[in-house]
Amino acid sequence: MGNEEELNRIIDYSGRDYKHIGTRPVRPDGVDKVTGRANFGADFDMNGMLHGRMVRSPHAHAKIKSINVAKALKLEGVKAVVTGKDFPAIDPSDKIVGEVVVSFYDMSRNVIARDKVYYDGHAVAAVAATSPQIAERAAALIEVEYEVLKPVMNLAEAMKKNAPVLHKGMTTEGVEPAPKKSSNIAKRAQFALGDVEAGFKKAEVIVEGDYSTQTVHQGYIETHACVVSLAADGMATVWSSSQGQFMVRAMCAKLCGMDNSKIKAIPAEIGGGFGGKTVVYLEPVAMMLAKQSGKPVKMVMSRDEVMRATGPTSGGHARCKLGALNDGTLVAGELEMEYEAGAFPGSPVGLGCMTGFAPYNMTDILCTGWDVVVNRPKAAAYRAPGAPVAAFAVESAMDELALKLGMDPLQLRIKNAAIEGTQAPYGVKFGRIGNLENLRAAEEHPHMSVPLGPNQGRGIASGFWFNIGGTSSAEVMINEDGTVIVVTGNPDIGGSRASMALMAAEVLGVDVSRIKPLVADTESVAFSALTGGSRVTFATGKAVIEAAEDAVKDMKRRAAKMWDVELDQVEWENGCAVCIETDKHKPLSIADIAKKSDRTGGAISGKANINAQGAGPAFGTHICDVEIDPETGFVTVLRYTAIQDVGKAIHPSYVEGQMQGGAAQGIGWALNEEYVYSDEGQLLNTGFLDYRVPVCSDLPMINTVVVEVPNPGHPYGVRGVGEVPIVPPLAAVANAVSRAAGVRMGHLPISPPKLLASIDEAK
Amino acid sequence: MADIEFAAPRSVREAVKILAGAKGKAKVLAGGTDLLVQLRAGMVRPGLIVDIKQIPELSTIKKGKKGFEIGAAVPGAVLGANKAVLKAWPGVIEGLELIGSTQIQGRASLGGNLCNGSPAADSIPGMIAADATCKIVGPKGTRSSKVEDIVTGPGKTSLKKDEFVVSITLPERPKKSGDAYLRFIPRTEMDIAVVGAGVSLTLDKKGVCTHARVALGAVAPKPLLVKDGAKALIGTTVDAAALDALAAAASAACNPIDDKRGTIEYRTKVAGVLARRAAVIALERARA
Amino acid sequence: MAKHHVTTTINGDRTEFLCDTEQTLLDVLRDELGLTGSKEGCASGDCGACSVTMNGTLVCSCLVLAAEAQDAKFETIEGVASAEELHPIQRHFLQEAALQCGICTPGFIVATKALLEHNPDPTETEARYWLAGNLCRCTGYDKIIKAVMNAAAEMRGA
Predict the structure, then answer these.
(1) Interface ipTM above 0.85
(2) A31-36 average pLDDT score
(3) Minimal C-alpha gap between C76 and chain A (Å)
(4) What pTM, to 2 d.p., does this model score?
């Protein structure tokens, strides 16, 4: 296909030279992670700790009539048993309203059921005992009497007029006039531009399609785990693996009725999250067990528990209609989608509506989304939440349009690409973006010129994600020997320590080997929002840069003092203070300044607590080649190329890794991953045997083209990288398979039985 | 919950005695790649686990008059490295080696795969096609059984409570013969077979098939010997028409279920496809 | 019933422990011996995060009963690097950025070491199939395969 340099490229539009940024040093936490020394959630113990275990509902939908814990409490070694009754009441109005609503009332009921269970695996009680074996026996002794209700397992059933209602009193928001009848439809969201009807009247070609995806799980390899202690004075320590120690603290405080100051949350190394560890499941329960027993409590989920009771992202259904002129110009687009929220409202359908058409310059658009509750686990964030399902529908429809117009699918996208100044469907006008640059890179990539053989097909798809900023804090501390510690409050989920060190190195002008980045607990750094939303390198990076600049400012002041010159005579160059007035003063390195710091005012550090604005929207375009076996429906991914505008790659290897990993997850979503439930609502594939994530032999090398169109909102141009790469692959794969098979595969996953049936039907 | 006892006998005799004396339910542990999963999931809770891997006979491969006698607990990694067995019965080895990952191959064995009694067991169709037999011991002594008579239904075998399989015998490989096993899974690795097909055939000097055995997995409550499949091949040069007849016979023999791994319709169709493809490979090997 | 007293060798050191029948080798490594480098991702042999070698053969420690460890020799991730330096495989994993979260990494390194002892010059396809029992959800395997191939080349002296 081409040599390594042609396949994997970095295309820099910044025209700026950096000394440290863009290099590829070994990550600071690397040695611990290749030698088994790094401590993840389950790798930590506390002295005298107990082992907790959850009791989970075997029913998808039931009323809890009674819970009898007497037998369990009598078992020798059992020290605590908690049920929903042990948790404080939370007001239903206690919620954070954003694009995705976070309701503490619902969260508390998700963590441990009260009067009803809403899905197979819903926690109903928990025990703590002196050994895991005793805890397991005790859990089996807890008697729960259920009144089993008819479960509502999918969108179509849930939206039926006479469907069993999960939450009595829940009515559909966003509909006028406000309905009074209880419904499983929690909300309608709508985003519109121009006049969609008028747009379709102009259209010379119209395509319309029906698309669906299934519930999928983030599939992190590390299961949820925590150790919690609560001393007699009410001071708690929570060790856990999450995407945010401050999130853990806040949610434990809310759900257990405590003050933030009483909880110290220590971030463990995190073994994958992808959005799924942005909420708590175990920590508040372990807290209440620790409170009752007076001892630390460790809880570790099994894989089965992870699949049944955490994570998944919404399955969705979409209708997409596109109108175009004969030359390919898009004139109208309509997207209507329903997403499964799981047991409680709050699917990311609104985000799907905002993102689906974002890669295109369209003036007349209507997007409608419905948030629907079903008896499945409450949906959690998963990489660009909401966007992949919408992009699957829109990008599949774009492929249909290209076929109908007889136009190259890449040229169709180039013709309609959103660029700087394009009005985005969600309200803003795009600033400088790299969408067209991605498509041009795709056009030039050697992948596009590889000839296809029989039963092979090539799929193209684009995708969009906002990327976010938000609150981040950082401190840069200069040690007395001139080495540096960079403290932040964001768990390192994929190499962020390395990028923090690189950005600090660029400001300070010293080698990264002299910088130690640290992820601090909630008592050692000021508040920082979650590791999520592709925000850490952008927002926390910005905080690190500002903190490092603050430290430089202080060091310049110290140098001025040491030289006895005015501050404006001191500049910072190549890691040294230099005096511009005279050359009689030798430049002072950080070590020189640090050594004398006691004489110039004490220890040196810089600090920044910011709410980072100016996040850079980003796009990706993926190319996928497949070969299908027309007799079995098996799909082989032959070649894959991911192209993405990242703004600036601080550590290119970890940027490429995000693109490759996102593509792999998207390929799994497209081909084989799905939740399979029994008719009664029990999850049938609770392990990695039948929840089929891609294995090493399933995938080819994944080429990456890192496009760097700098984000003006970040000093080094960073946009963020983690989420965009999971947006295009669903359609890229489906478009490739559809072209190879000659039949539109609009329903994921494209498992072999489904593909074979479609091929046979089309014959 | 009572404790589980554990024993690791050093001889067949000792193992027989331990099993015969077991009070509750006893489970024989070979590679453990199914048993440990079932234990963890709470699907089984035996009173006794008997590890048979310390018994020399269970872990050796012998070439005798009747063919290869393969200890029931010989793991895939060891059997796959045995060049003589690989040359004689590549299809049987293919079946065993398809079970799970490299890690699983370090443990999984023909005997364990057989006695776990899964209809989808990857090594069983190849063994049935090879007309393999197994040596079974119990308190009443030693008996022999054809492999196709062991599994009687999902998780069920014809072994008595206190019996276990010592070895599996693959017959002497006839001249101008070949075998092959293919399975279908949704990924390239790590799945349970959705359909499995084993074919063994022998040709005469003119290239006419004189003997054949066809077996299918994952398409019925137990692995199937498909006699009509063999009939479709015997007396032909295994040409396109014979292969079509084989595929039709294979599909006709299926009695599958709909589950999370495949549909009835899918399994029935793909059984024919795989039987045909396996026969083509077996034919190439017979001609080589 | 009393616990089993097991004597075994782990990373060259004679080790004794007590266990119940249902405890796996992984349970004992992590909970009794403090060797937490081997991870539990599934406890069913499907993810490979607990990979160790047993008498030189690659296995999932979650699928070995601790009681079976009597007289056996094990190597775990904790035994791969020496006090002075990392193993070339570990070094290449770091150089290629073949890990993101790092939870699967110990299992991959142990499995790769077993691969290169078995086959010093694997093709990319051979490496991918050998490692198919080690799940990684972060990397898409690309950089892992590059690290494996580079380590193989270095270890062959190429």
Answers:
(1) yes
(2) 98
(3) 9
(4) 0.98
